[in-house]
Amino acid sequence: xxxxxxxxxxxxxxxxxxxxxxxxxxxxxxxxxxxxxxxxxxxxxxxxxxxxxxxxxxxxxxxxxxxxxxxxxxxxxxxxxxxxxxxxxxxxxxxxxxxxxxxxxxxxxxxxxxxxxxxxxxxxxxxxxxxxxxxxxxxxxxxxxxxxxxxxxxxxxxxxxxxxxxxxxxxxxxxxxxxxxxxxxxxxxxxxxxxxxxxxxxxxxxxxxxxxxxxxxxxxxxxxxxxxxxxxxxxxxxxxxxxxxxxxxxxxxxxxxxxxxxxxxxxxxxxxxxxxxxxxxxxxxxxxxxxxxx
Length: 294
Ligand SMILES: *[C@@H]1O[C@H](CO)[C@@H](O)[C@H](O)[C@H]1NC(C)=O
Ligand SMILES: *[C@@H]1O[C@H](CO)[C@@H](O)[C@H](O)[C@H]1NC(C)=O
Ligand SMILES: *[C@@H]1O[C@H](CO)[C@@H](O)[C@H](O)[C@H]1NC(C)=O
Ligand SMILES: *[C@@H]1O[C@H](CO)[C@@H](O)[C@H](O)[C@H]1NC(C)=O
Ligand SMILES: *[C@@H]1O[C@H](CO)[C@@H](O)[C@H](O)[C@H]1NC(C)=O
Ligand SMILES: CC(=O)N[C@H]1CO[C@H](CO)[C@@H](O)[C@@H]1O
Hints:
Layout: E1 11-12, E2 35-36, E3 45-50, E4 59-66, E5 71-74, E6 87-90, E7 103-111, E8 124-128, E9 143-144, H1 150-153, E10 154-161, E11 176-183, H2 185-191, E12 199-203, E13 217-222, E14 228-237, E15 247-251, H3 256-263, H4 271-280, H5 282-288
Parallel strand pairs: 9-14
Antiparallel strand pairs: 1-14, 2-11, 3-4, 3-6, 4-5, 5-8, 6-7, 7-8, 10-11, 10-13, 11-12, 12-15, 13-14, 14-15
Family: Belongs to the peptidase S1 family. CLIP subfamily.
Signal peptide: 1-19
Pfam family, one: Trypsin
């Protein structure tokens, strides 16, 4: 196991095929102190899956967060490199067991226009082709944080995902969660670099987000409330997923305008699919239906 200095080593928490792990060495990874989530505890979480010839049932790539019946958020880095996630599902807490509320759909993707290798703007909207029809205990949307005063406003925060839980480099079938605390950005900058206010940091001494958690939710409740709001999207952390180092999350409050404007666009959902069907035929639809939309 190699311990890397957080200051220099950036590691994006996505599964190996997509990772931008600069060292490329073995990863010691763990959501230390993570607990099994209960059904309905994070009803807005989804799993972005890649479907290939070898794996027609799909493999978990990243987390996603349902924000209404047609749209989910994830991290842009989950969509930018190949292979592309081809479907998303909601309503399950176990990746291998479909619950009665399992909802699955192909995805259309919309990374942030200005996402680049500096990892800024690590946010993407996912258009869910087959809308979620009804909300229930296991599937519902989460509301977005709007205030940029997160640290004083929110009391309890959680990160959830199916990312690596141990040194074995296995994804967890059971959804895991951990409590984390928002970290003052000046402390976080001292550990990382002088980023601007489009990210927010959170940490715990015993748990941490890890590979495969990318794109998933950092949710917090306000004092005197249990309702969770989406404060961040898992973006990156140190290679070894070492508890005690602040993990970096895309700051949802900084992208309100982008989210609002881009989720209100509708026509592309039908027109490109229709065009592609005519041009390539139905069999090729799957392969060609993942556009960079914006
Ligand atoms: C895919 O799922 C089906 C039905 O659940 C199962 O029988 C099959 O073994 C799975 N294939 C793989 C490669 O996991
Ligand atoms: C929610 O998920 C749990 C666990 O899979 C399942 O037992 C329960 O029936 C589901 N509830 C609904 C409303 O689908
Ligand atoms: C860290 O995680 C532990 C175990 O889940 C929890 O009891 C503790 O409150 C968390 N600490 C912070 C600062 O969130
Ligand atoms: C964060 O740290 C800065 C500099 O140390 C300080 O001025 C600011 O008040 C802190 N903010 C909070 C919310 O603690
Ligand atoms: C954040 O920093 C980058 C360069 O480091 C800059 O291009 C960008 O405009 C900054 N964004 C904001 C909102 O300040
Ligand atoms: C297609 C679309 O509406 N794109 C918009 C996404 O949001 C930004 C503002 O944050 C607009 O400039 C884009 O036009």
